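Sample log: Sec23/Sec24 helical domain-containing protein.
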Amino acid sequence: MSLVVLSYTSQTGERRIRVHTLTLRCSRHLQDTFRNYQAETLLTFYCKKMYCAVLEHPLQELREELQTDVTEALASYRKHCCSSSVSAGQLVLPQFLRALPVYVNSLRKSEVLLPGLRSSVHQRLQQRCRVLGLDTCSTVRHFYPLLLPL
């Protein structure tokens, strides 16, 4: 449980205290964690992580880090949570992460992480700032606008 206390004074000089509490569920089983993953949320997390680091690290390093992070997460799912026997090269994804490889590929090939000749540094920085301010649904539409829920 997390607890935050905010102490402030109103315009009339009255002192007030506001207490916020937050309780998050914990799991002892890795499979429960993968069951609650959402590909859209992971795309937003990795987008913000990579776009914030783009000013400090080389782009190739960031693309490789993104690929490594996602690959390790999916390998962990396969190793610890996959109950059926699968062949060595078969890709196994949790139910709600079926779109994750497509999202990650779109992020890796985005104009900010893979600059091309068609945009300037200023355009890429402007796009970076705009995307960092997007919510989850808008981020998904930005990176993969053709994926529609049925």
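Observation: The two ends are 37 Å apart (CA to CA).
Observation: The mean pLDDT is 84.
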